[in-house]
Amino acid sequence: MGEIFEIGAEGVDVKNIMAEIEERVARKKEAGIYDRYDLSRIETLELSKIKSEAEYLNYLIKVIQQTWDIDIGDFPIYSKSGILGKPAVMLKKVIWKLLKFYTYRLFSQQKEFNCQVANAISSLKNKIDELAKKQ
Amino acid sequence: MPVGNIAFVVPRYGVQSAGGAEVLAQRVAEKLAAAGAHISVLTTCARDHFTWANYFSPGQEFINGVSVHRFPADERKPDSEFISIQGRIAQGMKVSRDEEEKWIRGSVHSRALYEFISTNRGYFDAFLFIPYLFGTTWAGSALAPEKAILIPCLHDEPYARLSIFREMFGRCRGLIFNSEPERDLALQLYGLHADTVAVGGMGLEPRDQYRPERFRKKFRLAQPFILYAGRREEGKNTPLLIEYFRTFKKQNRNDLALVLLGTGDVTIPEDAAGEIHDLGYIAEDLKHDAYAASLALCQPSVNESFSIVLMEAWLAGAAALAHGGCAVTARHCLDSNGGLLFRDYYTFEECLLYLMENKGLRERLAAGGRAYVRREYSWDAVLKRYAHAFDQFKLA
């Protein structure tokens, strides 16, 4: 939990409160408090902000930069089957561990490829931006 | 109300899981009828806005004193080309005029409804088409443009930038927007004449009583919660809210929960199942009790032309937390001093912490919102604005 806020004045001015909130966010960013936050899933959902083709390209590049580093353990294993849930989860975990053992090499190659593609696309985008500025 | 025969043209009417536009159409139609206007509703037999399959019987029925004429929706089979065009439009990519027309022809249509408009256009003084994004509005308004009044429920979205809609907005006799920011968006997008635009909105009244404890008891919710009410879909930013809240709970240790109400599929991550409660569609009375029980109503959507739930929550005594990227809800919050605004995850987190720690602030926000709704969106105020708009458009 963060600091406790106190609003003492009678009446509310949302503009002022929002300015205070923005200041707090800026201070936290500066202090590196948000560095430990993993917002990659959030970024992929912010499609609604996109209003043009150029923004969509920027969005895709951002998503590529955040998702190239695939993590094969990045999902929870669970079961919805009530009483059988626990044994089902255990079984799934065992199967997953075996699969991981045999597929690890494949995933690391894929990760290397993703990394190079992501870098190449970012470089191309920078070149395009530079050329566009010159025109 | 000194107006002649008015027909509302809306793709769905009198359905339980209606969207905001359909709710608005029904309530405004009923209030205008109660005020003495001659109101008819022309709609399809569809109930579901995904398939548009015919569900109701065609013919006339009366719903709350309003004459409703139902016509069969034409059979539609969206092919891969339609889906591809829709995908490109949604991503803000350019499509040709031909493709725009192919896409809108794949929307909901009713030949029987269009025939009725063509045959009876002399009888009606005005056709009120609502909302803008459907085939019935696009094709129907072209049949009697001199009598077409559009209540667009416009959002700032790629669809709004299609040339077919620019034409449609331009050919209508008048346009009634739900809010000033929505009107301003239309003026910016379509360059309309000021004498063809007006602001109406929808009236809301507080309920006789709110019973927050009844809601808490029924759903066994003891902890504080923020509430989402409405259709659960990507276009309304529900998945984003879930992900925001999941991250908030990872970073902040507290007992705050998120309660989701409404229709539409929603996926709650397993690791957040204990703190995000999906109650689905619940009775209207309980929904209002839920507003009253909540710490705040969260409106994450950036596609709002009015936001009924925001108004309802304020009337129930809840504070609001809305997406600052939506000009309409942001304006409501700022004008009323009734809600805080987030623009990304960081501001969402800070706003929630602010609201959690300040009961007095929540109460003052709620009071500001409530006063705003009673001042700007009482039925008296809204019906006066509609009467003024009809005068402005010189209806008989």
Secondary structure layout plus pairing:
The complex is a heterodimer of chains A (135) and B (396).
Chain A: H1 14-30, H2 40-43, H3 53-67, H4 85-134
Chain B: E1 5-9, H1 20-34, E2 38-44, E3 59-63, E4 66-71, H2 80-90, H3 97-105, H4 111-120, E5 126-129, H5 135-143, E6 148-150, H6 163-171, E7 174-177, H7 180-190, E8 197-199, H8 212-218, E9 225-229, H9 238-251, E10 257-261, E11 276-280, H10 284-293, E12 296-299, H11 308-315, E13 319-323, H12 327-336, E14 339-342, H13 345-357, H14 359-376, H15 379-392
State the main characteristics.
heterodimer; A: 135 residues; mainly alpha; 4 helices; disordered N terminus; B: 396 residues; alpha/beta; Rossmann fold; eight-stranded mixed sheet; six-stranded parallel sheet; 14 strands; 42% helix; 16% strand; globular
Descriptive report:
The complex is a heterodimer of chains A (135) and B (396). Chain A is mainly α. Chain A is built from 4 helices and no strands. Chain B folds into 2 domains: 5-203 and 378-392, Rossmann fold (3-Layer(aba) Sandwich); 212-376, Rossmann fold. Chain B has 15 helices and 14 strands. In chain B, the strands form 2 sheets. Chain B has an 8-stranded mixed sheet with strand order 3-4-2-1-5-6-7-8, sandwiched between helices. In chain B, strands 11-10-9-12-13-14 form a 6-stranded parallel sheet, with helices on both faces. In chain B, helix 4 runs parallel beside helix 5 (135-143). The relative contact order of chain B is 0.11. The interface between A and B is large, with 39 and 46 residues.
